[in-house]
Specification:
single chain; HNH_nuc; binds zinc ion; 13 strands; about 425 residues
């Protein structure tokens, strides 16, 4: 009998005698679980190795399959996604041979391939590692790429794939600032919220938010969702899900009642971001949102621009330098004066009212810009982004905000202004 068949019959034998498990000690049950998991992991790796060998020999095309993925799908009755993923992993984890020259190429993921043989890694880990490395920029030096793979492989031996994903994301943010910023911006474009009614007249909510928006929503909801005071000695009977729903409703009422979530009345909800001072000043590196999501320094600068954020600015050794005061609060009188001057978002063509706007520091406070009218301009969320990320420049000329477009928008870079009340006043006489 060949070895895999022997292995299979041994496993069947084990299953047939599973009634004897009741006699095993707890410890031997744990040991058995660990061993069987290693067996299944090694079997998966072996299956990928066999698939890669079949692929090298051209077996898929002999069976009129256009790719290894299609071949695996038909042979093993796998879903299209699963078979394509296995084909990708088979290639990444085994060496390839150029048939015409006979040259052998090492696996794309050599460290992962080696670690897999110990049975410590699961294919779930490999997926995370493969995806992360594939997403890194091609310009990255080979050595950095190898270091990144080794780092993730080492982490994978201590973390589950879900936890590894978080580590991989942080690593990627560090190695690929541009790509991560692009992704952050794509995630903003992909924000969506669906509000539908079901047959019983209830409202269903479904949507997707980018990390930053998610953190803002979470913070706002979390602030309002704490259990109510136990007035009669009883604890709040509402479960966490119910309290979150009530909190969302609270937010809606607050906005509708004219509390104006960003009007500066009372303590505004805060979003916590941690970042090193030099990273923030030099716009390099990454910060961390409250829930551990990495975020580019460029985005931290934007959200730290107004007072809705508590930046925990760290010194060179990573100790908090100053928490909560580093971002200067725009005082209410200045905010009101800004609302009068700009009338709302000052960006050309925008009509968002002041309560939807951030007070943007034209010269960032981290560079010594002061919190004074001449250095501030009101911008709504999307236009605040445009100014921080899309190359628009702002200046205040004769008490009015003026925007210089990036070259790709206007090669001559002619300044633009939002039409304010004074622009329309000359039409008053005509009417
Ligand atoms: Zn700003
Ligand atoms: Zn705007």
């Amino acid at each position: 009998m060949d070895q895999p068949t022997l292995c299979l019959s041994l496993l069947r034998d084990l299953l047939d005698h599973s009634d004897q498990l009741s006699r095993e000690s707890d410890n031997s049950l744990l040991e058995l679980l660990r061993t069987l998991e290693s067996v299944s992991r090694l079997a998966s790796l072996m299956a990928l190795t066999v698939a890669a060998e079949a692929d090298r020999r051209g077996v898929p095309s002999q069976h009129s399959c256009s790719s290894l993925g299609v071949f695996l799908r038909r042979l093993l009755r796998l879903s299209p996604g699963e078979s394509a993923e296995r084909a990708r992993m088979a290639r990444a984890l085994t060496e390839s041979i150029d048939e015409s020259t006979g040259t052998r190429y090492p696996p794309v993921l050599p460290a992962t391939a080696t670690a897999l043989r110990t049975g410590e890694l699961d294919l779930g880990h490999v997926r995370v590692i493969a995806r992360t490395l594939a997403a890194l920029p091609l310009t990255l030096p080979d050595q950095v790429r190898r270091d990144a793979e080794a780092f993730l492989t080492e982490q994978a031996s201590q973390l589950d794939p879900h936890q590894l994903t978080a580590v991989a994301r942080t690593l990627r943010t560090r190695l690929d600032q541009d790509g991560t910023l692009r992704e952050e911006q794509d995630a903003v474009e992909q924000r969506e919220l669906h509000i539908t009614r079901d047959r019983r007249g209830r409202t269903r909510i479904r949507g997707v938010l980018d990390a930053e928006a998610g953190a803002a929503l979470q913070t706002a909801i979390h602030t309002l969702a704490s259990p109510g005071p136990a007035a009669d000695g009883r604890t709040d009977p509402r479960g966490p899900a119910r309290r979150r729903a009530d909190a969302l409703l609270g937010l809606a009422h607050h906005a509708l009642d004219g509390g104006g979530l960003t009007s500066g009345v009372g303590e505004r909800p805060h979003l916590s971001v941690t970042i090193g001072f030099t990273q923030l000043r030099d716009v390099a590196g990454t910060g961390t949102l409250e829930r551990g999501d990495p975020i580019t320094a460029q985005s931290v600068r934007r959200i730290a621009c107004d007072a809705q954020v508590i930046p925990a600015v760290l010194n060179a050794t990573g100790e908090p330098l100053d928490i909560g005061r580093a971002s200067p609060t725009v005082p209410e009188p200045i905010r009101r004066a800004l609302a009068v001057r700009d009338g709302g978002c000052a960006f050309p063509g925008c009509d968002r009212s002041p309560s939807w706007c951030n007070a943007h520091h034209i010269r960032h406070w981290v560079e010594g810009g002061d919190t004074a009218l001449r250095n501030l301009v009101l911008l709504c969320g999307p236009h605040h982004r445009a100014v921080h990320h899309d190359g628009w420049q702002v200046r205040v000329v004769h008490g009015r905000a003026e925007f210089v477009p990036p070259r790709w928008v206007d090669p001559t870079r002619r300044p633009r202004r939002n039409a304010g009340p004074h622009d329309f006043s000359r039409f008053d006489a005509a009417s």
